[in-house]
From TrEMBL:
Protein's organism: Pseudochelatococcus contaminans
Stored InterPro entries: Fido-like_dom_sf
Protein name listed in UniProt: Fido domain-containing protein
Gene3D superfamilies registered for this protein in UniProt: Fido-like domain
Taxonomy, superkingdom: Bacteria
Length: 222
């Protein structure tokens, strides 16, 4: 991935969220330099997984899912990790608790959908992480964005990067996912509809600028 272009887009989103007329941001956590840094740590981690050919969608590599969540919430410094140690431990307990829709449910879904299109996989896993019961205690939306990006980029498609232009649509989609209860039988059609909506958002917002072109890959290092 072209991390510089992604950072430029997130910086633009931060500036837009800070403007006086940013009505779309009123009920959301404002972007900050720290949030941008933590998200960029997540994108860089995804880049490393892709470079090292790590299959994120096998149970044996599920610890990477946890690390992505820790990165977007706590960053990389040991001091901050220690500060949030209790939260990290609780998140790990929830993550591996399959009685509450833990990582096992997501990996099983991914195994069943290995032949689906990259966009369908990315959209499906985004919904599975952000709908109820959510995978993490906090940071589900940001972490799901990174994991969906992994699913897309490993197939040569652009990652999910939320910009000032499509921020409102992204949060409308994410908020709808949050209100979906996967344990209810009457949510089947809603899940199917919203998965398609997420997939369409990913297609519409895709930007090849976020990918390192083959000719530039060696000089970029990732």
């Amino acid at each position: 991935m072209n991390l510089q272009e992604i950072e430029n887009a997130l910086t633009g989103l931060r500036l837009a969220s800070a403007s006086n007329d940013a009505e779309d941001f009123e009920d959301k956590e404002p972007m900050s330099d720290d949030i941008v840094r933590r998200m960029m740590s997540g994108y860089a981690y995804v880049n490393d997984l892709l470079r090292d050919d790590v299959d994120l969608f096998t149970y044996g590599n599920s610890h990477h899912w946890l690390e992505l969540n820790h990165l977007v919430l706590c960053g990389t410094t040991p001091e901050r990790r220690e500060q949030f140690r209790n939260h990290i431990e609780l998140t790990e307990k929830r993550f591996y608790d399959d009685s509450k829709g833990g990582i096992g449910e997501r990996i099983e879904w991914l195994q069943r959908h290995r032949t689906s299109t990259p966009e369908a996989v990315a959209a499906g896993i985004f919904l599975l992480i952000t709908s109820s019961p959510q995978l993490y205690i906090e940071g589900n939306r940001r972490t799901a964005t990174l994991i969906a990006s992994y699913a897309l980029v490993r197939q040569g498609l652009s990652p999910v990067v939320v910009t000032a232009k499509d921020y409102k649509e992204f949060f409308e989609v994410a908020d709808t996912c949050k209100n979906i209860d996967r344990s209810r039988w009457d949510q089947t059609l809603t899940i199917r509809r919203e998965t398609g909506r997420i997939e369409q958002f990913m297609r519409n917002s895709a930007d090849p600028a976020y990918l390192v072109q083959t000719a530039d890959a060696d000089s970029a290092g990732h």
